[in-house]
Structures are given as C-alpha cells and as structure tokens.
C-alpha cells in the first residue's frame, strides 16, 4: 500500500508540539522559526503539517505524542489484505501499511478478498460502538456477481425480507440493482454476510466493495490510501441522520459515478 492523506494536510506542527507539552503554540512557532525542530530528519519550517506516523524532534530529542489523543483512520483496503492483528499464514496485513501507533487496530473485519472502507483506531469505545450489534450502524456495499447477472426485483426483495444462512436468518436494510450486481446495505456485520446472502439467492459474488459506514463515505481515496478522520468525520460516522441532505446526496452521486 502506498500514499496517505491527512485532513487538510494533517496536524499543524505547532499544535503537535503544544499537545506534547513542549511549549505553547506561540512558543512552538518560535522554536520552529529558530530551526530547532525537525520532522523525519529534516529541519521544519513554519506552516509544516504532520501525521501521527511522523518523527518529530526538538533539539534532537524525540517528542512522544502517541496516546495523547485517540486517532482514527479511514483506509481504502485493497483486496488481498487481512484485517487480523496477526496472521499465521504470513499474508499481507493492513496494519503493516499504517503509521506505527501503539494501540491502533482495525474496527471490525473486512475479509481478505473484499475491498473498500476500513476504519482503524486507537479508541476502544469507538470500536465497541461501531461493532456491537445493539448500535446497528449501517454498512453499505457494492457487489459484482458471477456473469455480471443483475438480481431480479423479486430476488432483491428476498434479501430485504430475509434469507436463511447457516448461522441464522439475515436481512438487508436495502437491496438495489446495479450494473453487473447489486447495492446492499446491512445493519449488522456478520462474517462474509453479503457474499453469503447473495449466494443464497443464486448470485455468487466476484468482487465486493464497502463504500459507506454510518454517515462516512469512502470518497475519492484510491486503494491503499488512507486519511485521518476529523472531528466532523467522526460526528458524521456516528450520526448519519444529522448529515445535511445535500452532503448525503453529493456523496451518493459520487459513489454512483465511480462504482454504479
């Protein structure tokens, strides 16, 4: 995986120094102007932004900021990467491509063959909120099916009414036709659920992409790219009903233009 983007380019360096207790923001700006601060071995200039994985030093001393605040990332997970913390088979792991931050872990699972929106965080409460069934955060997927066959209206209704799986009945909140497949939205996240549901109606999945969780969309990230979530992102993630209608509609149009 390559490439990363932080919100508005990342966190301003003087804010990072202030959070670490090095100095006030104004005094931190003076340290930077004086050439006493380096980022990844290079002398920093005023206006520099940093991401959690950057190495920041003042007069050669490493500034430790991990754990001062929780951080959450949105990653476009490519197919072929596993989301478990350790893999006995030595397969590629999403954590290997993220900043080295103590406590960073994937939120839930996205199976190795699937791609799209995956959250990683150091916030245990956020993980519980997003993964516990009682909270029912929506997860939306774009599925491509064998032979590019589009499920019929009757078959899509079956998904909404519920199909029987080996671990119990499963129901989609919504199921819509798409070119060569379907859009499926769930209120739960059982193992390989979308794949198994579509297989149950006779449409095996050949490619599966998750493009939305709650009120947060994958956007224009490319496979392997990630960005740190802002407080606004986190609010939208947990409160989709409060996302302005025009923002929701624009995200839906962009999603359809890219994957419809």
UniProtKB/TrEMBL annotation:
It is an enzyme of class 5 (isomerase). NCBIfam families: pseudouridine synthase (TIGR00093). CDD domains: PseudoU_synth_RsuA_like, S4. Its EC number is 5.4.99.-. PANTHER family: PSEUDOURIDINE SYNTHASE FAMILY PROTEIN-RELATED (PTHR47683), RNA-BINDING S4 DOMAIN-CONTAINING PROTEIN (PTHR47683:SF2). InterPro entries: PsdUridine_s_RsuA/RluB/E/F_cat, PsdUridine_synth_cat_dom_sf, PsdUridine_synth_RsuA/RluA, PsdUridine_synth_RsuA/RluB/E/F, PsdUridine_synth_RsuA/RluB_CS, RsuA_PseudoU_synthase, S4_RNA-bd, S4_RNA-bd_sf. Residues 11-67 form the RNA-binding S4 domain. Belongs to the pseudouridine synthase RsuA family. The keyword Cell inner membrane does not apply. It comes from the Bacteria. Keywords: Isomerase, RNA-binding. This is Pseudouridine synthase.
